[in-house]
Design a protein that fits this description.
394 residues; 60s Ribosomal Protein L30, Chain: A; homodimer; Phosphoribosyl-aminoimidazole Synthetase, Chain A, domain 2; alpha+beta; 2 domains; globular
């Protein structure tokens, strides 16, 4: 362990999600639905081919690891840091702040690091927002970001704000570690089991939710999903994206994880391939199961846009994919659900580590695990169902 | 010294420079002059009133110091880091990369720190650039940034790239320090002398250079400056913005500096006021001399746009303003010009530290020191003057 070398990292998630369809936002829209209009793209348009690298324009920075690890001049310590910034993808500014922070911290968590010494915030307000919108939205984003940082045991001590056509939110997470505090993601062995700590399908859910207001798009998927199911999936995606991977990072130590990464812009296949490439042993990763937010697999198929079942659909602030010794994996999945870690943590065994040439693949017909949104229970219990509709309005 | 406390920092420069006049760039322009069109504003429009704070939208992050200082869990060490990102303001992508990196590092240098353990790059390419423009411009920006990082004794190990309407370039500089490696900017005493290590007027020069192609603007200043003088001033500004303040940071230790800051978006007066506020002693700063790139004071007056003589004109990657013991200031200014530190370092005594209530001001009629661009000598020596013109073409 602990071969702390200066290694390139970062930069992949949003490069992979950056896309072509422009939409620069208009100041006149009402606040609720307008927030994610201050973004450049429809996320599903975005995925680069898995494994195609971080960005054609940024060739030298590499995507090998989720964080960079820099040996320091001081007594065996290493500097570990990461940065991420992107554009709004949910309607709720507070949740967007939380998601942005969770997404930055996740790169540390993927290395089994549970502490963060400092967080900087990167922010732009949109020039096309009205003053009123700006004054409502910006403090909420900042509060969400700060609250998530606090949950991560750190604080935001600085940053940078600019004016830009689109809203930007992101951050820089930094920690100085002793060698035993982080797990280099290179030690998978044949026989290990792959565990995933959040369901897939966040981008599908976010897009499907936007399509509720877009009859042309909605018509292509309304045969496979109801409006209510999309709303629930969207809430579930938002909740998952805002959940820190910190508990999983801690349990990586408890259960002797051999390697991990977090699932973001390249989808589960892309990140599995990246992780496989870094292994010291001659191994390959084979994914058998895909835990997916309920109905999102059907939307992916019906729309023909995402590649969710091929593992190439981008995720935002996704779960950790962790290589664990076979005998530890089930215990990991059981332990993470314990109420002592708070609500909402889950994990699934999704694949195995075989002898191979450092690649990753999904089997031909993977088992889709439909992960029921938590809201389903609440909805089933609700007596007043008057606002819910399972039919599209157009 | 060395009261390493977690202190808010960063975020001021571009907040102060962010502005209203939009210009989203068009892909069809030729490369040379088009690069800085991928920016949102004419910089001179931008200055917030000096001392008005970092940004109305980012109230809690403070602008007290140039970098944040976080005490670590490990043996008396402190984490010092800073981030800055902004939009192109010169025509040369390579120089823009250098300037962006110099600007980030400058926040460390302002604390007397000469080392940087890690640099992350923040970058966006513009969606409105053609593929050809993108492929030419982006590698040059990255190379400029990397070269400046190398000159600063560090390396770029990661970062983030996105697509955005405007080009963005910036970075995150991080260092882990022992207490004697940094100088907290709070120990000015009555009788100290203020020294400045780069001439003022970068924003005026950048804007005046843009006006060469804007007859309406140019007509307002052509009585006080020639086109050739503007070209030389622009080159001088670019050179200064790309120069690291690292030598000055090292000499802060040699000559027992009591406090320092770097001059960026709030101008010399704004940053002097910020620095004065942080002093432990009851002192005030009084600025008597303004070293300004030749002719830029005249342009500022003629255009009525900048407030350069009032100290409120924004600077990019400006010099360090350093409080030195009186008997050390002249030696500092002499030493920094030594050829052992390479070409082009200068420094001027610009003011004094008096007893006062932690404010800063510029005297009524400050002495303007016209700093001659280095190119003047080269031009004077040139025999073929056929391309030079001192008259505007329109």
């Amino acid at each position: 362990m602990a071969e702390a070398s200066a290694t390139g990292a970062g930069g992949e998630a949003m490069a992979a999600m950056a896309a072509t369809e422009g939409s620069s936002g208009s100041a006149g829209l009402p606040l609720g639905r307008s927030f994610s209009n201050y973004q450049p793209f429809e996320p599903q348009e975005a995925g680069l081919p898995a494994g195609s690298g971080p960005s054609p324009t940024f060739p030298a920075l590499g995507i090998g690891m989720d964080s960079c690890v820099i040996p320091l001049r001081h007594g065996g310590l290493s500097l570990v840091q990461t940065t991420d910034f992107f554009y709004p993808l949910v309607e709720d500014p507070y949740m967007m702040g939380r998601i942005a922070c969770a997404n930055v911290l996740s790169d540390l968590y993927a290395m089994g690091i549970t502490e963060c010494d400092n967080m900087l915030m990167l922010l732009s307000v949109s020039q096309s927002m009205s003053d009123e919108e700006r004054e409502k939205v910006t403090p909420l984003m900042i509060k969400g970001f700060r609250d998530a940082a606090e949950e991560g045991g750190t604080a935001v001590t600085g940053g940078q704000t600019v004016v830009n056509p689109w809203i930007i939110i992101g951050g820089v997470a930094t920690v100085v570690c002793q060698p035993n505090e982080f797990i280099m993601p290179d030690s998978a062995v044949v026989g290990d089991v792959l565990v995933l700590t959040k369901p897939l399908g966040t981008q599908v859910a976010v897009n499907a939710h936007q399509w509720l207001d877009n009859p042309e798009r909605w018509n292509k998927v309304k045969m496979v999903v109801s409006r209510e199911e999309v709303e629930l999936a969207y809430q579930e995606a938002m909740f998952n994206m805002a959940t820190l991977n910190r508990t999983a990072a801690g349990l990586m130590h408890t259960f002797n994880a051999h390697a991990a990464t977090d699932i973001t812009g390249f989808g589960i296949l892309g990140h599995s391939q990246n992780l496989a490439k870094q292994q010291r042993n001659e191994v390959s990763f084979v994914i058998h199961n895909l835990p997916i937010i309920a109905k999102m697999a059907a939307i992916s198929k019906a729309s023909g846009r995402f590649g969710l079942l091929q593992g190439t659909s981008a995720e935002t602030s996704g779960g950790l994919l962790i290589c664990l010794p076979r005998e530890q994996a089930a215990r990991f999945c059981s332990e993470i659900k314990s109420s002592k870690y708070g609500e909402g943590h889950q994990a699934w065994i999704v694949g195995i580590v075989e002898k191979g040439n450092r690649t990753a693949r999904i089997i031909d017909k993977p088992r889709v695990i439909e992960v029921l949104p938590r809201g389903v229970m609440a909805t089933a219990l609700a007596t007043d169902n008057s606002n819910a509709s399972s039919e599209p309005s157009s």
